[in-house]
């Protein structure tokens, strides 16, 4: 079996999770991660056994902090077959030139624009579009969440229009620079980027989105109204969602009434970092009236794109032709099941 050497550029919220997920796969290997400053995350990465690569100008700072380094960021590029770029948004263009010069493949995250790569990735909807590509982009957490539920519904019933309000967490739990926050902030630039981002995967879908930033750090919440091409019923839609990959149905009456209980559920499942990789849909909040479908879903912004990154590596590096087979392999390694 061919083992793909994977570098992780950026060991933050997404990068640390991608590194952990990749290290659990039997057809890929983490050859190193990068940090620009000798933070606790850099120290933790080294303690976990990951080789840490840093900018050349930061080598002395890491030595002074007592954190062992394996070389420079460029050294990591030379050691990698593919790099998962988890650096902050809007810096990918500069790194893309470096990846090209090193002759390696790279995956970017949803903070970058679709135009950077010309192809965006979702495991279920367009796995083969990234087959053998040098560059691809895993769409954002909210976009991933919307595609996970809208794509299987559209495939079975067909969607005429989709109207979504995204209630966004204001910051990640480990991020204090954006808070504390005591406000609701509407995104007044309409429609928001989420609709066009979904269309980078499903260009035929007529989707309209709005967003509100809320004073929470746990998860995003979507309210979704779908106009179907034909009349349907609630049971039919629930059957579609039950069989959809990486979608988990829960019930409010079971005690999971909010995103707080969802995160507690993830802890009880014993997930790494309490991660909920699946998109969580309230089963008793799904309702169809004629050709109008209504539902709520929750998105764990730190986690839902992690299995997508693993599958994207397989597609770009031609490790597994079949999308479902790759997803099954990834899910088994990460402990994802339908519950």
Q: Strand-residue fraction? A: 15-25%
Q: Strand order within the widest sheet?
A: 4-3-2-1-5-6-8-7
Examine the coordinates and then state which fold CATH places here, giving the name of the CATH topology of the largest domain: Rossmann fold
What is the tally of beta strands?
A: 16
Main pleated-sheet profile: 8 strands, parallel
Mean pLDDT: 96
Helical content class: 25-40%
The CATH class of the largest domain is identified as Alpha Beta
Order of SSEs, N→C?
Answer: EHEHEHEHEHEEHEHEEHEEHEHEEEHH
Low-confidence stretches: none
Query: What would you give as the CATH superfamily of the largest domain?
Result: NAD(P)-binding Rossmann-like Domain
Specify the number of helices: 12
Structural class: alpha/beta
Number of domains: 2
What is the CATH-assigned architecture of the largest domain? 3-Layer(aba) Sandwich
Distance between the termini: 31 Å
Please give the radius of gyration in angstroms: 20 Å
Oligomer: single chain
- Categorize the overall geometry: globular
Structure explained in plain terms:
The protein is α/β, with parallel strands linked by helices and 339 residues long. The protein has two domains: 4-139 and 305-334, Rossmann fold (3-Layer(aba) Sandwich), CATH 3.40.50.720; 141-299, Dihydrodipicolinate Reductase, domain 2. It is 33% helix and 24% strand. It has helices spanning 13-23, 40-47, 59-64, 73-79, 92-102, 123-126, 141-156, 194-199, 234-243, 259-268, 306-316, 323-334, and strands at residues 4-9, 28-34, 52-54, 71-72, 82-85, 105-108, 120-121, 135-138, 159-169, 185-186, 207-214, 220-228, 247-250, 279-282, 287-289, 292-299. The strands form two sheets. It has an eight-stranded parallel β-sheet, sandwiched between helices. Strands 9, 10, 11, 12, 13, 14, 15 and 16 form an eight-stranded mixed β-sheet that branches. β5, α5 and β6 (105-108) form a beta-alpha-beta unit. α1 (13-23) crosses α11 (306-316) and α11 (306-316) packs across α12. The protein is globular. The two termini are 31 Å apart.
